[in-house]
Amino acid sequence: MDKDSASIVYLRLRKQVGLPAGVPIRLRDVARVLAEPELEAKLLQLELVRPEHRDGNLIVIDMLQVISAIQAEFPGQRVELLGEPHVLVEMIKPEKKPSPLLFALVWLLLFFGAALTIMNFHADVSMPEVQVRIVEMITGEKDEHPYLFQGAYSVGIGFGMIVFFNHLFRKKWNEEPTPLEVEMFLYQENLNQYVVAEEYKKMNHAESPAERS
What residue intervals traverse the membrane (predicted)? Predict the structure, then answer.
């Protein structure tokens, strides 16, 4: 390897990271670095941003900020950036202990909400009449209250939901993502894109007065 290529610093910014609130953001937190060992150790400790309360809990660090910080500390250093043009840093505050009362209220709300949704759906499609007709077709006798069939049907709904969402409490049957996890991932991706776009708008507004002056 020649001298010029050995002096290049290769950076790959991460897409999103979470850090404890109040700590300074260093290069090691937001990027992977490949350089000469002595230089790499110094670069990893390089402080990029010292977040303040007014910055909020989401901070976007642009590749130009990273390169500028490196050039300020190591003038003339060549930098090659790979991958993402920015990284979204979430400043995470210490988690509060969940309230058992609040947990119980939310659980009851979700439980009865889901139950009412299923019952209203069944009422809309006349499910009781359908179940009575199915039992009559199977047994040859009409039963206005086929509790055995309805009980088995209810258990089947619960089992079907477990299979569909691939979850039983914290246990997963396989590594395939659940529909809910996919939707949450897409929501998080859209949210991150929105936050990045808004942060770039703020940067542009902040730079515009300086350019005019």
Answer: 101-123, 147-169
Alpha-carbon distance 67 to 78, whole Å?
A: 9
Distances (CA, A) of 134 to 86, 131, 151, 153: 59, 5, 14, 12
Distance, in Å, from the CA atom of 81 to the CA atom of 6, rounded to the nearest integer, reads: 15
Of 114, 27, 111, the residue nearest 73 (C-alpha): 27
Task: For residue range 69-103, list pLDDT tens digits in order.
Answer: 998 998 888 888 888 888 998 888 887 787 889 88
Contact (Cβ atoms closer than 8 angstroms) between residue 31 and residue 23: no
| CA 29 vs CA 9, 83, 88, 188: distances in Å | 16, 16, 11, 20
Contact 15, 84 (CB under 8 A): yes
pTM above 0.90, yes or no: no
